[in-house]
Amino acid sequence: MGDYGYSLHPYFREMPSIGKALARTLEQNVEDIKNVEAEIAKEVERVKNSGKATEALNKKGEMSAWQRIEYLVDPGTWCPLHTIYDPANNEEQNTGVIDGLGRISGKWAVIIASNNKVMAGAWLAGQADNVLRVTDIAKRLHLPLVWVLNCSGAKLMEQEELYANRRGSGTPFFRHAELQKLGIPIIVGIYGTNPAGGGYHSISPTIIIAHKNANMAVGGGGIVGGMNPKGYVDEEAAENLIEQTRKSKATPPGRVEIHHNGTGFMRDVCDTEQEVLDDIKKYMMDLPAYAKDFFRVADPAEPKFPASDLYSLVPINQKRVYPMHEVLARLFDNSEHMEFKPDYGPEVYCGLAKIDGFLCGFIANNQGILGKGYPKYADYQGIGGKLYRDGLIKMNEFVTFCGRDRIPLIWVQDTTGIDVGDTAEQAEMLGLGMSLIYSIEQSDLPMMGIILRKGTAAAHYVLGGPQANNNNVFTLGTATTEVYVMHGETAAAASYARRLVKDKDEGKSLEPTIQKMNDMIKDYYDKSRPGYCAKKGWVDEIVYYGNLRKYCQAFVGSYYQNPTSICAVHQMLTPRVIKG
Asked: So what's the pLDDT on residue 247?
């Protein structure tokens, strides 16, 4: 029993069971999924090993960003995000920062660290957008933002790729100001040289903690030496630059003597790298957070069935179906749930479950044949994964109830899209899809997405996709994820059907057009793979099946740590509507 007891315990202490033990292991499916996970693991290792060797940094008395995070974060709680994100296809093959969710001193925080192995943590193309994604997470979950900073400024050789623009390198500083306006603190630990953009990363947080050798400045030594340009470099200018660089190396602008002893910007100065991180831990202890049991509705419990079952349950073959409720049974506490309207809109699962004893809503795409006479408005058979009228209405209702009751939502996508054709249009598919988007926006709820397999067409948007900027905290992919506007074969047919007719009518060979169609199908396949989705930012991380529940725990635990609005459990309507 928790420290405080539990409200509405007749509803939540023991909920109806879901799922059953796995009948058999599908060895080939397991192997195929793990092969894709191994490919992703290689990409992650490539990012971790890029730039200077960790051993070389350590010899100089410097920890790598990953070592700093490992020291800072409570063991077993680190949930990395954007690890292989690289939207600009940088030669470094990353954005220069590492980020994720983790607990520090028992409290969840959003953490971002400069990758000091690559150009001393310089701004690279795509970094501003990565930072904005991270600050969005802090904003939506009302979590503290922790910076582990070591930023040498912009990669000046590619300034046009990263400096200006609406979401350029200056935007994160405005976002930092916005977080503080909302009462969300930002703590920074500073290492190394941090000029220009690195300086504003340093000064824009709430609490500034510095290593004794750190500095932060409007400009570095090289910038100071070039402040009186002639429009070209001659020998006189080169000699002046050499002199200024030697001087600034000995006494860099913005060092501790200036910003601790002088301006007082730096609150603490530490002798060792570890002490900077220890200071961050101390400040995290003093930040507001509810005791874990304050919002719990039951004791935490593991699912009855192991996460390893997911490797057999979810077919890597996208044309095969599977029981979605069995997947959910591997995520929910004690494999228990309360399903919302199970006999209405059968293509969609909606229900309440517990994650670590906290209440959470789930919406997922059921798979397979939906039963005779469904959808009711049509004379064709309904198939799981596609959205029909009743399912859209059902989701609108469930999202609205969860918004009213302040219950966070997790979406599990495996969708082929929304029903199409004149019959579907007459059934108001277009309007109901937009209604769901409105309901999501109106709910003002943080939401998490999992694209388990297919994220397709407008259904990808309306099912709480990453496009829901004011709601979607992050979206996870898996080894079976595919994201595209439509399947490659469908896209090829839509693009070349008329060309085939024309070729046929003119007596031309169909082979050239068929080849173009097959090239398009392959291109769609290549550009929808899990690794591609993560690099482009369509998902925020590719997560192993065995870690999906861990990310659910991080999301739900973060939501209930210090929420901005509350509905008392005994005042909730959603469980009463379900129970009747």
From this structure: 65
Q: How many helices and strands, by DSSP H and E, does the chain display?
A: 22, 20
* CA angle in degrees (0–180, nearest 5) for 571-574-579: 105
Q: Which helix (H) or strand (E) holds 348?
A: strand 348-355
How far is Cα 316 from Cα 313, in angstroms, rounded to an integer? 9
Instruction: Give residue-wise pLDDT tens across range 208-223.
Output: 999 999 999 886 655 5
Q: State the chain's mean pLDDT as an integer.
A: 93
Domains located in the chain, CATH noted = 51-117+126-218+253-286 (3.90.226.10), 298-481+539-573 (3.90.226.10), 487-528 (no CATH)
Cα dihedral angle (465, 470, 473, 479), rounded to 10 degrees?
Answer: 20
DSSP string, 55-99: HHHHHTT---HHHHHHHHSPTT--EEESTT--TT--TTSS-SEEE
DSSP code, position 514: H
Residue 506, Cβ density class (10 Å: 0-12 exposed, 13-18 middle, ≥19 buried): exposed
Backbone angles phi, psi at 183, to 5 degrees: 85, 20
Shortest CA distance to 333 belongs to which of 563, 12, 11, 1? Answer: 12
Tens of pLDDT, residue by residue over 278-320, are 999 999 999 999 999 999 999 999 999 999 999 999 999 999 9
pLDDT value at residue 223: 53
Relative orientation angle of helices 65-72 and 273-285, to the nearest 10 degrees = 40
Helix-, strand-, coil-residue percentages of the chain, each rounded to 5: 45, 15, 40
% of the chain residues with pLDDT over 70: 96
Least confident span in 228-242, 334-348, 352-366 = 228-242
Query: The whole model's pTM is what?
Result: 0.94
Length of the chain: 580
Report the alpha-carbon distance of residue 140 to residue 299 in Å, rounded: 26
Dihedral-angle region of residue 270 (phi above 0 means left; psi in -120 to 50 means alpha; beta otherwise): beta
The CA distance from 468 to 463, in Å, is 9
CA nearest neighbour of 328 among 310, 343, 312: 310
- Do β-strands 417-418 and 409-413 pair in parallel, antiparallel, or remain unpaired? unpaired
Comparing 489 with 3, the larger pLDDT belongs to 489
Q: What is the DSSP letter of 570?
A: G
Asked if residue 368 has pLDDT above 80, the reply is yes
Tell me the three state secondary structure of residue 272.
coil
Which residue, among 43, 41, 71, 67, has the nearest Cα to 55 in the 3D structure?
67
* pLDDT bracket for residue 44 (50, 70, 90): very high
